[in-house]
Specification:
- By secondary structure, this protein is α+β, with helices and mostly antiparallel strands.
- It has a single domain, classed as Deoxyribonuclease I, Chain A, CATH 3.60.10.10.
- It is built from six helices and twelve strands.
- Strands 3-4-2-1-12-11 form a six-stranded mixed sheet. The protein has a six-stranded mixed sheet with strand order 5-6-7-8-10-9.
- The longest helix has 21 residues, at about 130-150.
- It is globular and about 45 Å long.
Length: about 270
Amino acid sequence: MSIKIASWNVNSIKARLEHVKRWLDSNAPDLLMIQELKGLEFPHDVFKELGYHTEAVTQKAYNGVAIFSKEPQKVILDYLPNDRDDSEDEQARYLEIDYPYVQNSRVKGATNLRVINIYLPNGNPVTKESEKYPYKLKWMDRLYDRLASLRRENIPFVIGGDFNVIPDDKDCHDPKAWQGDALFRADTHAKWRALLNLGLTDAFRVHNHAAAQYTFWDYQRGAWQNNNGIRIDHFLLSPPITDRLKSCVIDKAPRGEEKASDHTPIILELL
C-alpha cells in the first residue's frame, strides 16, 4: 500500500472551491496540502462531506495554508517557531501535523509521518525600501532551524508547498529574465541549499531531471499557452522518507481549466 500526498497553491479557496472538489474526486489523495487560501473562512464542512478531515491556518485576505487528510490528523504546530515571539509577524504560512501510517511504515519504530505545509514568502520587490526580501530570508532561516530540530530528533518528515524558490536554471523558462528576482537570487539559492544539506531530497528531481518542468505559469503574456513557467512548488523529504519514494509528478491538467489557479498540483507517492 502506498501513500499519496499532493500540494497545490490554489490562489484563493473561495475562487477555486469547485476546482479543488473536482480534483479531489478524480485523484483521491491521502493528503492534500493547499496554500494561499486568502481569507479567514474555510469550508471545512464541504470537504468533510467528501470524506476529508481538514485543518487550516487562515489570515484575512492573504496567505493561509490547509491540510486535507483521509485519516484524522494531529496538529503539532500552526506557526513557524519564533513567529509568535514577534508581534508584527502574523502571516499564516505554516502547518505541521502528524499523520498515522503504521500499516505503511518501513521506518523502524515509526508510528506517524510528520507532514509540513508551507507557503514561503515571495520576497519581491527586492529594494532598499522594502522589508519583503529580508523577511523571506529570515523566514527561511527559521524554517532551517525547525527542520534541523526534526532531523536531530530523528523524526521522519515530508515538507511540501509553495517555496517561492526556483532551484536551478532548468526550473525556469528564461533564467536571464529572473536574475535579481527574490525567487532566484544567490541568497535565496544559498538558503535552499542549506535545507538540502540537512540531508533532504528534492523529490521531483529523483526521477525527473528534464528542463521545462513547471508548477507555475503567470496569467500574463501567454505564459501558460507558451509553457513559460517556473518550478517553485516542491516536496523535500528526510532520508528515511526518501527511501520510500515511489514517484513525484506534476499534474498540469488543472492549470488548463477555466479560471484556474496560476499554480498546478504536484503529487508525491510513498511506498
